[in-house]
Design brief:
By secondary structure, the protein is an alpha+beta fold. The protein has helices spanning 53-65, 70-82, and strands at 2-12, 18-28, 31-38, 43-50.
Length: 83
């Protein structure tokens, strides 16, 4: 499985702590998925979401825009699939 870095986002939480998240598109012969990594060491990988590149890019755009963390990534992807 290939990981392609799409974006890096830094946000500050309510306590003033800076968080850095890296967003990756996962690619393999079966299709596309996402990976979100935290600068603090957390990682969430959700492979095999879709076979369409446009759909995964749209999902990644939303993950980046809303600074989704690895802790929430799987839930957000599951909700996105239902819509």
């Amino acid at each position: 499985m290939k990981e392609i870095l799409v974006a890096v986002k830094e946000i500050q939480d309510g306590n003033g702590i800076l968080h850095r998240f890296s967003y990756y598109r996962l690619e393999d012969p079966e299709g596309y998925g996402v990976c979100v990594k935290s600068g603090q060491g957390g990682t969430a990988m959700v492979p095999g979401i879709t076979t369409r590149r446009r759909r995964i890019d749209a999902l990644l755009e939303k993950l980046v825009r809303f600074a989704v963390s690895p802790v929430c990534a799987r839930d957000v992807v599951e909700d996105w699939l239902v819509l």
